[in-house]
C-alpha cells in the first residue's frame, strides 16, 4: 500500500480530501485555499507536504494517512506512484468508474453551466490488460515510462494495463536493447497489437535520425508483425487496416461497445462522420445510410479508411480536410452526424457550423470532460437538447474519461 508514514510527517498540515477532480488529484481545502494531492481518496484524512504554492492553490503530496477510505485497495502494479501512467490503482475499480461519472457531472455544471441528466451510465470492461497500444521511452539500455511531470525514466519489466502481446513484445525489447545491433539513438518506441501481430513504431530518435528498415525486419524475427507497417484490427463486425501513423482506440475490450454507443439507432439517408480516423464509425454507418461522408485531416488515416471501405464492400465519400473547412462549405444538412474530435474538442467554429446546419441527430464522442462541457454549452444554447450522456471507461486506472453525448433538436 502507498499509505505509509513519512519521517517528516509531523511537520505537515492535515487535509481532508473532499473529492477527486479531473487530472487525477484529490481536492481538499487548507486555510481558504484549494489543495490538490495525488494518490488519495475522497473521505481520507492525510498529512501533506506542500510542494508548490500559488495565491489560490496548493499542490502537495500525502506523507501520512490519518484516516483511510474503505475503497482503498492494493495497486496491481509495482511501479504505481512512480510511473506516470496510472492515477487510480489505489482505488477499487467500481469506485473509479462511479467517480468518473461524478467528475463529468461536475465539469458540466462548472464549465458548461449545464444541469446534467439525472442518470449518467458508466460502461466498463476489464480494468487491466486493456491497452492495445503503449509507448515506451528509452535511455541507453533501459526502457520504461516517464515519471509524472518529469523526464526521469522509470524502467519497467511489465505493464499490467497493457495487453499480453504488448508485455510479450516488451520482454523482447528489454533483451534487444542490450544487443550491439540495437540503434542507440532510439528514444521512444510504440507497440500496437491486434493480439496476433504487434506493430513496432519508432516515435522519437536523437537528432531526428532515421532507423534503417532492416531494424524492423530484425525485430520481426522476434516480435510477430513488428515490420508490417500496418495491422488489421477486427472491431464491430469489420476489419480495419491501421497504419503506423493512424489513430485507433486503445481499449481492446470496449471498442465494439464504443461503436455501438456512438451509432445506436442511426439509419436513413445521409450521415456525416467528422474526425473519422480509419473509419471506426464510418463503416457501420455506411451499412445503414444511403450516403456517408467521412472527414479526416490525416493522410494516413484517410488512406486506411478508403482501403477499409473497399475491403468491406461499402461506399464512403472520404474527404481529407479539417472538419471546420469541410463544414464551412457544406450547405446540405445531413440526417445524422457523429464527431470524435481530439482532446481540444470541436471548438467554436465547428460548433457554429453545426448550429447553422442543424443535423437533427448529433452524437459527440469526447475524451476530455472540460472541452465536452464547453462544446455542449454552445450546442445546447443553439437549439439542441441532451438526449443521453454515457461514460465509457476506456482508460481504467487513469483519470482519462471518454463520453458519448447524444443530442437532438429541441
Tell me what the structure shows.
- The protein has nine helices and 21 strands.
- It has 410 residues and is α/β, with parallel strands linked by helices.
- It has an eight-stranded mixed β-sheet with strand order 7-20-21-19-18-15-16-17, with helices on both faces. Strands 1-5-6-4-3-2 form a six-stranded mixed β-sheet, with no helix packed on it. Strands 10-9-8-11-12 form a five-stranded antiparallel β-sheet, with helices on one face.
- Strand 15, helix 5 (282-286) and strand 16 form a beta-alpha-beta unit.
- It is globular.
- Residues 1-9 have low confidence and may be disordered.
> What is the helix fraction of residues, given as a range?
10-25%
Main pleated-sheet profile: 8 strands, mixed
Number of helices: 9
Structural class by sheet pairing and helices: alpha/beta
List unreliable stretches of 5+ residues: 1-9
Amino acid at each position: 500500500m502507498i499509505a505509509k508514514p513519512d519521517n517528516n510527517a509531523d511537520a505537515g498540515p492535515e487535509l481532508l480530501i473532499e473529492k477527486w477532480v479531473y487530472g487525477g488529484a484529490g481536492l481538499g481545502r487548507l486555510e481558504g485555499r484549494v489543495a490538490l494531492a495525488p494518490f488519495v481518496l475522497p473521505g481520507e484524512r492525510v498529512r501533506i507536504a506542500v510542494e508548490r504554492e500559488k495565491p489560490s492553490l496548493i499542490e502537495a503530496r500525502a506523507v501520512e494517512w490519518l484516516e483511510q477510505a474503505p475503497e482503498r485497495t492494493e495497486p496491481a502494479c509495482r511501479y504505481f506512484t512512480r510511473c506516470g501512467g496510472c492515477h487510480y490503482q489505489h482505488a477499487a475499480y467500481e469506485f473509479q468508474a462511479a467517480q468518473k461519472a461524478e467528475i463529468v457531472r461536475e465539469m458540466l455544471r462548472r464549465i458548461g453551466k449545464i444541469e446534467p441528466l439525472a442518470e449518467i451510465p458508466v460502461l466498463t470492461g476489464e480494468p487491466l490488460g486493456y491497452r492495445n497500444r503503449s509507448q515506451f521511452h528509452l535511455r541507453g539500455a533501459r526502457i520504461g515510462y516517464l515519471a509524472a511531470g518529469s523526464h526521469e525514466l522509470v524502467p519497467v519489466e511489465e505493464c499490467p494495463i497493457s495487453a499480453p502481446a504488448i508485455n510479450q513484445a516488451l520482454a523482447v525489447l528489454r533483451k534487444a536493447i542490450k544487443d550491439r545491433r540495437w540503434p542507440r539513438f532510439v528514444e521512444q518506441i510504440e507497440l500496437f497489437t491486434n493480439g496476433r501481430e504487434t506493430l513496432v513504431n519508432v516515435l522519437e530518435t536523437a537528432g531526428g535520425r532515421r532507423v534503417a528498415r532492416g531494424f524492423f525486419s530484425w525485430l520481426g524475427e522476434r516480435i510477430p508483425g513488428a515490420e508490417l507497417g500496418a495491422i488489421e484490427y477486427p472491431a464491430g463486425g469489420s476489419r480495419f487496416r491501421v497504419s503506423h501513423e493512424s489513430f485507433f482506440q486503445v481499449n481492446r475490450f470496449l471498442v465494439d461497445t464504443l461503436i455501438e454507443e456512438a451509432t445506436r439507432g442511426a439509419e436513413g439517408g445521409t450521415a456525416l462522420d467528422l474526425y473519422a480516423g480509419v473509419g471506426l464509425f464510418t463503416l457501420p454507418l455506411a451499412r445503414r445510410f444511403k450516403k456517408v461522408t467521412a472527414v479526416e485531416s490525416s493522410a494516413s488515416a484517410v488512406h486506411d479508411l478508403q482501403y477499409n471501405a473497399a475491403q468491406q464492400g461499402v461506399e464512403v465519400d472520404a474527404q481529407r480536410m479539417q472538419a471546420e473547412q469541410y463544414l464551412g462549405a457544406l450547405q446540405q444538412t445531413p440526417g445524422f452526424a457523429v464527431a470524435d474530435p481530439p482532446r481540444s474538442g470541436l471548438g467554436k467554429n465547428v460548433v457554429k457550423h453545426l448550429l447553422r446546419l442543424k443535423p437533427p441527430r448529433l452524437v459527440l464522442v469526447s475524451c476530455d470532460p472540460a472541452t465536452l462541457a464547453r462544446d455542449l454549452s454552445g450546442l445546447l444554447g443553439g437549439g439542441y437538447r441532451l438526449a443521453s450522456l454515457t461514460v465509457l471507461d476506456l482508460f481504467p486506472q487513469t483519470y482519462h474519461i471518454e463520453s458519448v453525448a447524444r443530442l437532438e433538436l429541441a
